[in-house]
Amino acid sequence: MTKKQTGATLSKFIGGMIAGTVSLATYLWVVRPYFLRWGTTDAEVKRTLLGDELVPNPKTGYTQAITINVPPEKVWPWIVQIGYQRGGWYTYDWFYQLTKSGNFVDGHSANRIISELQMVKVGDIIRIHAEGPYTIAHLEPNRAMVLQAKDDVAPMNISWAFILEPLGSHVTRLVVRNRTDYGSDPGMGLFLTAFTDGGALIMQPKMLKGIKQRSETL
Questions:
Q1: DSSP secondary structure code for residue 46 in this structure
Q2: In this predicted structure, what is the pLDDT of residue 131?
Q3: Considering only CA atoms, which of 128, 93, 95 is closest in space to residue 111?
């Protein structure tokens, strides 16, 4: 390799390192913080919500929110029917089909209220895929559903809260909060942080928009 070629290769390497560093910094300091609180107010992010006590010391998580122009009782049926082998997630169905976790009652995220999926209770299981069980930990009809996934062996403890708050008589504020804790295993920590970030950046905002669209038009 000539001196000129060596210099060009070194320049490309340095340029790549700089570009990678800038991209990582942009993600960590701009993109990630924005999506970890997508759609929320400062008060919504800071205040305690039902389900927070299930994961008292989270290592990662997010709070997101959306305003829906119908009362809570029009939003609630879409929330309680979510899940694998249920109504789906109202988000990117292609992802669930690709990962073989898109086994939904209608073959896709439901565009209807499915009556047989409306009767849920504390202790029921809501799966994200065949091996991903969440348990309904709290349930207040038209007000709140909180899911929890806990594994003391892994270890892993996740809460996923859907909170409905009326704003007047015909508007609802839907606030969703994820809180995730894990042990000292760096591999598990990296996996769950990536899992949580993927939900916050990609899946959850689309889900909130999907619930809003269905609640307001169907």
A1: H
A2: 83
A3: 93
